[in-house]
Amino acid sequence: VEVIDKFSPNVLVNKHHQLSSKYVPKDLINFQSDDVKGTSKIKANKEVVTAFHKMREAAKEDGKDIVVNSGYRSYADQEETVSYYQNAYGDSYVEKNIAKAGYSEHQTGMSIDVASKNTTVFIDSEEYTWMMDNAYKYGFILRYPKDKEELTGYSYESWHIRYVGKDLAQKIEKSGLTFDEYYARNY
User: Fold this and answer.
1) Tens of pLDDT along 87-125?
2) What value does the mean pLDDT take over residues 38-56?
3) Does the annotation mark 157 as catalytic?
4) Residue 63 CA from chain centroid, whole number
5) Which of 69, 40, 82, 95 has the alpha carbon at shortest distance from 158?
6) 3-state DSSP call for residue 122?
7) How far apart are CA 156 and CA 118, in angstroms?
8) Could you read off the pLDDT of 10-40 as tens digits, one per residue?
9) Is the Cβ–Cβ distance between 163 and 142 less than 8 Å?
10) Buried b vs exposed e over 80-108: b needs ≥16 C-beta within 10 Å?
11) Which of 79, 126, 149, 157 is catalytic?
């Protein structure tokens, strides 16, 4: 495991690259209430919030309604999340599906979970299809793609997207690689 001591917007956080328990992004802001599913205040990196809002507006022009379900989670928040799922489903489930504290991209403020405002099953929604065709144009990538579990270390998550900026998102989209593969080859 490599402990990340220098944060950059394109930092790779996974089962082999860990953030410090003390790491907190400096530029967190709240999403606009209209961009959020439910009533809770959700934060992310300022650039992520801006890019998501632009993506959401473009989706709305095409008749789709994508909203944010989850954003920044502190180290302590992630510890609570892990504990909840361990108690509910056990260690095996957590290993495949839940990042342990320090290993979650949500702590970077660069990852968000999205949903459809129109349905509860995101993967079956028109919003999911729209996002898969367009997210890279706004700087987002699907972080845990289907059939790539052995490379990412996590089960497929249709809702978990990562902001990497337009340039890098387009390169990753064109390459067909996961962020882990692209990072390993280029950084």
Assistant:
1) 999 999 999 999 999 999 999 999 999 999 989 899 999
2) 95
3) yes
4) 23
5) 69
6) helix
7) 22
8) 899 999 999 999 999 999 999 999 999 987 8
9) no
10) ebbeeebeeeeeeebeeebbebbbbbbbb
11) 157
